Amino acid sequence: MGYLMTLGIFASIYTILAISLNILTGYAGQVSLGHAALFGIGAYVSAALTVNLGFNYWTALPLSILITALVGALLGLPSLRVHSDFLVLVTIGINFVVVALFKYTPFFGGPYGLLGIPRPSLFGESMNTFEYFLYAVGWATFTILFVYWMSKKYIRVAFEAIKEDEEAAEAMTISVARFKIYAFTISAAFAGLAGNLWAHYMGVIFPGNFSFSKSIEIMTMIVLGGIGTIRGAVLGAVLLIFLPEYLRFVSDYRMLIYGLIIVFTMIFIPSGLLGDRSITWKWTRIFKKGDRVAKNNEN
Amino acid sequence: MIELQKIMKIDRVTKHFGGLIAVNSVSFEILKGELLALIGPNGAGKTTLFNLITGVFKPSIGKIFFDGKEISGKRTSQIARMGIGRTFQIVRPFGKMTVLENVLVPLGKSFYTNLSVFSHSPRENSSISKAMELLKDAYLDDEFDKMASYLPIGMQRRLEIARALALEPKLLLLDEPAAGLNEKESMQLKEYIEKINSNGISILLIEHDMKFVMNIAKRIVVLDHGSKIAEGVPSEVASNPQVIEAYLGRKHKKGDKNA
Amino acid sequence: MEFWQNSINVLVLGSIYVLIAVGLSMIYGILRVLHIAHAGIYTLGAFLSLSIMEVTGNFWIALILSAIISGFLGALMYRYVYKFVLKEERIVPLIVSVGLFITMQDLYRIIYGPYKYPFSISIPIPYIRAGNFYISPLQMLILIITGIILIGLYFVLNKTRIGVGLKACANDSQMAAAVGVNTKLTIALAFFMGSALAAVAGTLVGVYDNSVYPTMGSTVSYKAFVVVVLGGFGSLKGSVIAGFLLAAAEVFLVAWKGFFLPRDAIGFLVMILFLIFLPNGLFGRKER
């Protein structure tokens, strides 16, 4: 049962991560293969605040989110000059540099990482696994609801416009620079939240937890689920957390399978399993169309 | 009071790219409510001038005034917000949005500069009915739920114009709107543009197609090799020997090359 | 003295960077694809050489066979993977390439296990030594092979029809097709040559470090992009110069003990700065 709880916590954390990458990549069209860097910054900031500087968890939580968001805004600056595949190169580079910084900064524990990160406490007692599970699920739910709400507002329209055509978006009074920075900041805030939840559950973090392969993992989730949708991000995260645990061979060949998922989804089902124009909906549409034809025949 | 009648003033604007002079000390004015056409052979600097007005480029020398305020050097989105709508030479609707969504984008104009972008929804009834009205004027209301990229090019052009009009511009810039259209589409477009103009919106039309321009423009400015070579009513311009030399002569040569 | 010793290190490290980056740059020049899976080929080359050498006992046979097989695999990758996604947004082939790379890397782990295999050879090159300054036989080997390859490459690209075809495709592949260049074959050839060079680089690194392992391509793959970015995308001459420049920067910055970042991070930092401030690299043509 405890094991299932742990998986649930991981699934919640990755749901938040996948949704946060989806804001950046799916909504605003800024593809990042360095998302693990932001995840890591959230984790390291919160861990360093509580372990090294003696902050209380409930103070470290907003601070870690805020600092990650600020760093995210800063990391968004290159996107104002660098586009599409070159931006991806920059994000990959950032991932390597950030991990190197963790590894070579004594304050962050160097290659040995940070240990003894406290669980948050409620009413003077630190959370047990079940309570932490509820806590993580709570945050994941909040993330889903917040992003769903956001996706119904004009901010989503602006993101969609800069994703499709920056010049046309500018002509529509949308400042591309402003909204790219928004996307990076919001996305980073949620990645920071995920990092915080990870660090305070694990109790130990290493630079290697936030390496480039973690970025690929997050990208695989949204590619598989369907880029640009919340449901896709959630499905991708949950699938990729639970599948390896239940299918032994999947866990042995994890990276191989991630790689194949990326290659095959991109080539054969570019909208993923639940994307807006994915095969899943096409099948249902075929049925609907069948209904319509039948109705027309009746008339 | 003459000042007030101008919507735009281009004042000795020059643009270099390295050693190349794309626009050379060009000056002209657009009057309020006017439909002015800017013509010239390929490579005359029309599109560069257009990009200077919309803020894609900054003039090397010279100034551009809109509604009494200097706009040269401002960002594209700021200039758009001041009341200049534009279309693109190669149509650029948001292809993966529906026709209706395309027009909803500019209706968020007042939210994009502040945090109300988080609280206002494009799905409010007032926005949708406004968008539908604009689509109706563009004869596109029947297509509102179609994906923009699936529309024929004539409709995409009108959609682009409708989208620009949703900004409630004082000046509308049209970049070769008739390019690639057939006779019927071209007629429909002309009607649409005249209707917009009659509602008091000034229009600057860049056009390659002489026939289209002669029919629709009240006044014409002719560019060649980056410089203004003529300005006047269509009949004057058409009989100007310099224009015939530069425009038709070159066109003839171009025809030779193609043959 | 230390300076000269470091200079040799620069030449050796730079040679490896150049061998990897030239293929990447060639492929980018023609297809505008950032071929990250190139590093998968690099690792493959090392493993193939190792295996072939175990069977035949001859390093040269192993090196050449490994280069040819890897070259074919590279060409197949174009034919059976990239071709399907080239018409998509430019981001799609890149993500596919990352997918391919991690697939290959994990395949090696599954086949060979996560171990470091020793790869030692004996070559009839004398140890060159003058006081504290020396060039080891392996360093000499790398310099000689790289030299031969670069001269050969120069000849192929400038004096043969293959080179003309490659250049034509890089300029405008539709135009090239119109004047009778077999573009598909030319692109496949670019993949073949680039991949063969990567395999040679992998083999040489394997021998030099005396170890071959599944993840040996991880940093290299992205490092090669640093070189390509620095040299200007698609410019082969630029890649060659940039390869040696990057090596020099790394070697001398590491030798200068005060620097706060590890060697690999320097490269990425340089790449980020270049992409932002000098996107055409040092020697690239202007695009857009």
Topology, please?
The complex is a heterotrimer of chains A (299), B (259) and C (288).
Chain A: H1 2-27, H2 35-52, H3 57-76, H4 84-104, E1 121-122, E2 125-126, H5 129-150, H6 154-164, H7 166-171, H8 176-202, H9 212-225, H10 230-246, H11 248-252, H12 254-268, H13 279-298
Antiparallel strand pairs in A: 1-2
Chain B: E1 6-17, E2 20-31, E3 35-39, H1 46-53, E4 61-66, E5 69-70, H2 76-83, E6 84-86, H3 99-107, H4 125-137, H5 153-165, E7 171-175, H6 183-198, E8 202-207, H7 210-216, E9 219-224, E10 227-232, H8 234-239, H9 241-258
Parallel strand pairs in B: 3-8, 3-9, 6-7, 7-8
Antiparallel strand pairs in B: 1-2, 1-4, 4-5, 9-10
Helix pairs in contact in B: 3-4, 3-5, 5-6
Chain C: H1 2-31, H2 38-56, H3 59-85, H4 91-112, E1 128-130, E2 133-135, H5 137-159, H6 161-171, H7 173-178, H8 183-209, H9 218-231, H10 236-255, H11 263-277
Antiparallel strand pairs in C: 1-2
Helix pairs in contact in C: 1-5, 1-6, 1-8, 1-9, 1-10, 2-3, 2-4, 2-8, 3-8, 5-6, 5-8, 6-8, 9-10, 9-11, 10-11
Distance between the termini of chain A: 58 Å
**Main sheet: strand order of chain A:** 1-2
Radius of gyration of chain A: 20 Å
CATH third-level topology of chain A: ABC transporter involved in vitamin B12 uptake, BtuC
The SS-based structural class of chain A is mainly alpha
CATH architecture of chain A: Orthogonal Bundle
Biggest sheet features of chain B: 6 strands, mixed
Which fold name fills CATH's third level, the topology of chain B?
Rossmann fold
Contiguous low-pLDDT stretches of chain A (5 residues minimum) are 286-299
Determine the CATH superfamily of chain B.
Answer: P-loop containing nucleotide triphosphate hydrolases
Question: Largest sheet of chain A at a glance?
Answer: 2 strands, antiparallel
What's the end-to-end separation of chain B, in Å?
Answer: 53 Å
How confident is the prediction overall: mean pLDDT of chain B?
87
Relative strand content of chain A = under 5%
Q: Structural class of the secondary elements of chain B?
A: alpha/beta
Order of helices and strands of chain A: HHHHEEHHHHHHHHH
Tally of helical segments of chain B: 9
